[in-house]
Amino acid sequence: MFEAYEADGFFDEMFAGNGEVRSHYRALLSRFSAFPPEDFEARRASCDQHFLRQGVTFNVYHDDRGTERIFPFDPVPRVIPADEWDHLEAGLTQRIIALNLFLHDIYHEQHILRDGIIPRFYIEEAKHYRPEFRGMKVPKDIYIHICGSDLIRGGDGTYYVLEDNGRCPSGASYLLENRNALKRAFPSLFESLGVRSVDAYPRELLEMLHHVSPHREGEPVCVLLTPGCYNSAYFEHCYLAREMGIEIVEGRDLVVMDDFVYMRTTKGLVRVDVIYRRIDDDFLDPTVFRKDSVLGVPGIMRAYQAGNVALANAVGTGVADDKVIYYFVPKIIEYYLGQDPILPNVPTYLASEESDRKYILENLKDLVVKAANESGGYGMLMGPSASSEEIAKFKDKIIEDPRNFIAQPVVSLSRSPTWCEGNMEGRHIDLRPYIIYGNDVKIVPGGLTRVALRKGSLVVNSSQGGGSKDTWVLK
Amino acid sequence: MLSRVANSLYWMVRYIERADNLARLIEVNGQLLLDHERLDSERLRAFWKPIILSTGDETLFSDLYSEAGSAEVIRFLTDDRKNPSSIVSSIAQARENARMVRDQLSEELWEELNSLYLFINSRDGELLLSADPTRYYETIRRATFTFHGIAAASIARNEAWEFMDLGRHLERADKTTRFLDITSFLPEEEVPANGTATFHWTAILRSCGALGAFRASHQGEPDPDSVVDFLIFSREFPRSVRFCVDRIDRNLHRISGAPRGTYSNDAERVAGRLLSELSYGSTEEVLESGLHQFLDQTQEKFNSIGEELFRTYVLLQDANNARPPIPAANMSAVVAWQMAQQQQ
């Protein structure tokens, strides 16, 4: 199956430059080579069928009929050797600890601003900064409880952090379902290859929720707060709630009385201690944020401020995943931990710095420009493939609101063998590990590997035609 | 259990039961039509009109269709998405409710319902409906039976089960009364002077899946007395009104914990009273005072059981600042907000 595979021109996960298979892929190669292509294709198709029947889907907006789609699954796993994973784990742990110290500081004394490490206006003008919560104590001083940092691998195989998703990172359910799908399709693969299990994620997530619960007698009552069944990630919300054995609730299921949060059950009101919220700050509480929204819970912020309920992630964490603040994360790590960052950032230019801006405007066609607070592949300019009108339009946007933009050189993400309509071809991938910060830092071995299924594309987002793979971390 | 979850489980099962009943109704009457000699369009209308009238959707039907022939009626009841009570709409709504409480369902149960939903929305489904309607309706009926079977085998007998079982029997009782009511709307010329019109009563029994059970307990041809007696008062047949109301009463008391024969909320009061009427009533009384009137009043009682149930367990009026449900007119804004929530 790999006879015609081309591994040239990019860092290939499976094959070294000389065409040799990398040692951690050797066992997989020999197993897969034994499959006739038709058999392989049949197993892939049966994975799709399984996902469809099970409703392992995400909602597609602006689509009149069939509003759900499966996240295309590629049956060729991505393999990460143990030493490489240890390095990633150390780097991600360092990062989440620093980010949480940073958030605590920003919402309290603001040493980092006084010491001039980050210019004050970057924080104060961050869209998701919540100055009204300055001085507020959050349970166990944890702000980002669940982080999904995106990692990519450049031409020389170095891992870079592309961004930190610290508000409502999604995709963990697909990571778990991908493993189930691959086990079903290739049951014999797992026997001897020494792949580390990912099953612990829901348990570790629940342990973390328990850890941040306000202290009281008995088992804490945890719930997952969803915007509702029309949200793109609704499948995931249900999935995680079920795996953890907690209720999935909508805003209308909760009421606040005397600064305590209750859920409405057939037996009356039941007190809630911890909320894993998958709705944005702006919609959490119509008495504090957006008045017109019915998604949230009136009064929930008062209960939160009174320390009667814990929210994961905390309110105001969005300031840390502002792409402008991302630029400062290596400095944040040095400032709070006195360490060198283990995982580097992608080189980044800030449009609000004059010299950077000049460089950006002159080199747009070689850069990727990103809006500070967008996700899902929106608000982006891919310079090399953009038309001159698009470039001109972005130029205007940058000049008009420089604070809102960063630019990065195009990193040619590493490629991984991917099954493309009967052939094995290289496709660009990234990696999103899920980091849980509770009593200590837990990272499920692996993560969600997303793959740009279109030939040559560097965009891996599900909303932009990306798919995903199972991710193996070897023992 | 969350109030909203109870509500969704209840509706999920009601819609499944509705699809099953409709599939049988259409199938039976379609078959019946084949036994007739050629009908002109006048007679065709006369044949289908009672069926539309019995479902209570005549206004919507006449808004959507100018003709009332077999094709239109079958389309309206089967796969017209503009009819919220069509088979296809019912399955879609069952599945929508299931999606909201997916975490409460067994994997198999969800998968069965989701597969049915995918089938009715697929090209295969469309083709089967036009090429072999009998198999199409059979597929739907089998899938709903499978659904109930999986539910029975995989749902713990807790509150969730009681709400589901309640929804199933309330819908079923309602449909039995509606199928019986078809005879009230039959045009004069369809009812022979001697009043037997056996084939109509047979069709009703078959629509309720009751022909075999009826034959086992009644000798002779079906007539109004025996069919009413069987479909309303039978203590044993699972689609008779009495059987269903007995289950509803039991479900309600299991949910509240109040002993049967007493009541702790209005749903229990209405159900208990209806059950005793059915326990001590007779076919003669019903036919004397008028079958249609009796069925109509019974349907109203089903409605009020449903409403009181909602008031007691979902709205929770005693919760100080409980919020009322969102008015339908604002739903599109809610959908837009739900979509706007960024999942990174």
Automatic annotation (TrEMBL), chain A:
It comes from the Bacteria. Signal peptide: none annotated. Residues 77-452 form the Circularly permuted ATP-grasp type domain. Transmembrane segments: none annotated. It holds the Pfam family CP_ATPgrasp_2. PANTHER family: BLR5612 PROTEIN (PTHR34595), SLL1039 PROTEIN (PTHR34595:SF7). This is Circularly permuted type 2 ATP-grasp protein. It comes from Luteolibacter rhizosphaerae.
Automatic annotation (TrEMBL), chain B:
InterPro entries: ATP-dep_Glu-Cys_Ligase-2 (IPR051680), DUF403 (IPR007296). Residues 1-313 form the DUF403 domain. This is Alpha-E domain-containing protein. It comes from the Bacteria. It holds the Pfam family Alpha-E.
